[in-house]
């Protein structure tokens, strides 16, 4: 496997305040590496160092085998990035903004602009001034700028932040396609656990400036605690008794809800429904809940 991104003990301090400690990670060609952490965990700081925008206090970052600090300008022809809220010239249209970037990058202006607008489904906003775009479309314009030169490495800081659900699915599919079909390496940060487990092939979890854990997305899915919540219209005690007798690990939660944590119940909730309805205990609610990022961290950090 070809190593594309490598950090060695990246550390950043501002005065006495330590933002990042000893971050060492590797990302391989065609991988989508999800960098997952709560707000303030240190994601943006890491990404800024990956891009050479700020210098580490100690440690190093490498892309394509080159040390980022002091890298030759050619390195940046292979890298596309979007960090925090993307900037665009407000009085230029989407097309004008992109043509400007194409020109600065020495690309065929018309062809690369139209191609990237198509890719991100931005063509119908081509003549809209950047200042009149919705937040989601402004974000897409930022992504278009990051991708216009067809880079082989994409580094994206919370790229789906302002997008609506349809936009999130679209970007997810585009990134998956780029990684799988074109071998593009994607490093993407987010604080949304759900999104990461759907998109990334590997996930690095950062908390308080430390890389806590690196796992595959499949492992991550298995580690997340899931539970089935049931509520019956009445006779909650009886329902609990019945479920326990049937061998399910069951406990009473808020507002008369019953939580079932067995794998088999989570995989086949219809069995629970059948059991209760069959005993004349009609259901008011039946849901599978997945643990959120905060509680996953709390559990992980307190171990
Ligand atoms: N220039 C700076 N001077 C001092 N502290 C800073 C500086 N830049 C960032 N920090 C602090 O470093 C910590 C990590 O910030 P960072 O922006 O990297 O987090 P993040 O994980 O990207 O969070 P968010 O999702 O909120 O952007 C925060 O506590 C932040 O206040």
UniProtKB/TrEMBL annotation:
Pfam family, one: ABC_tran
Keywords linked to the UniProt accession: ATP-binding, Nucleotide-binding, Transport
UniProt GO MF annotations: ATP binding
Nucleotide-binding found in the keyword field: yes
Residue span(s) of domain ABC transporter: 5-233
Sequence intervals crossing the membrane: none
Glycoprotein in keyword set: no
SUPFAM superfamilies: P-loop containing nucleoside triphosphate hydrolases
Gene3D superfamilies membership: P-loop containing nucleotide triphosphate hydrolases
Alphabetical list of PANTHER family matching this protein: ABC TRANSPORTER, ATP-BINDING PROTEIN
Family affiliation: Belongs to the ABC transporter superfamily.
Protein name per UniProt: ABC transporter ATP-binding protein
Organism field: Saccharibacillus endophyticus
